[in-house]
Write a structure and sequence with these properties.
The protein is α+β, with helices and mostly antiparallel strands. A hairpin with a 4-residue loop joins strand 3 and strand 4. It is about 45% helix and about 15% strand. Helix 1 runs antiparallel to helix 2 and helix 1 crosses helix 4. The protein has a single domain, classed as hpI Integrase, Chain A, CATH 1.10.443. The longest helix has 19 residues. The chain is built from eight helices and five strands, in the order ββααβββαααααα.
Length: about 200
């Protein structure tokens, strides 16, 4: 794993894009809905509690930005009622949810993932445990659903250097103090790229 922090009460894991793909595939062995749920967290940055909201009716292609956006109703990091935002979706995930919706013959108003938040969290733990067992790699046992969002945010903020305001908007953070914990240390590859000879 890119990084594991077990110094506090909760172990935090940062997964690389390849590790996220491994987790998606592991979850998908128990059903396509599980794979879609992991994609929504690991590639779109959704919280586990947000995964059960969006469906085809919420997904749109922005001609202005040449990007897929979808409505999410989620946590308000300032407190109070849930907040609605437009989240970003990579093309490969948009392709998958379109295929999934067609295969399942979902009504546009139906959610792609129609399960409870505890079920989504359990799916991640089960998929990670399977990987831990298959690879004999105990660190995978510590992976949680929030680690997918943490990995997504850190990858885009630190490795891809997406500006903080964009990430706050698509990730649903109300202020800098809410997103600051995701500004983790860069990987060695990012340090080398940034500091290499020019």
């Amino acid at each position: 794993m890119v990084r594991v922090d077990d110094s506090g009460d909760v172990t935090k894991c940062w997964l690389s894009p390849d590790e996220l793909t491994t987790l998606e595939r592991s979850a998908g062995k128990d059903g396509w809905e599980r794979e879609i749920a992991v994609q929504l967290m690991g590639q779109c940055g959704l919280r586990a509690s947000e995964v059960g909201y969006p469906g085809d009716h919420h997904l749109r292609y922005s001609e202005d930005g040449s990007v897929w956006l979808f409505e999410v109703r989620g946590k308000n990091t300032k407190g109070g009622d849930r907040k609605t935002r437009d989240a970003w979706m990579p093309d490969n995930v948009a392709d998958d949810v379109h295929k999934y919706s067609r295969e399942r013959q979902l009504d546009p108003s139906e959610s792609w993932v129609n399960v409870s938040t505890p079920s989504v969290r359990r799916w991640v733990k089960e998929a990670a445990k399977t990987i831990a067992d298959n690879l004999d790699e105990p660190r995978w046992r510590s992976v949680s659903s929030h680690d997918l969002r943490r990995s997504w945010a850190t990858y885009h903020l630190v490795e891809r250097q997406v500006d903080v305001r964009t990430m706050m908007s698509i990730g649903g953070w109300s202020d800098y103090s809410a997103i600051e914990p995701y500004l983790a240390e860069p990987t060695e590859a990012r340090i080398g790229e940034a500091m290499g000879e020019r």
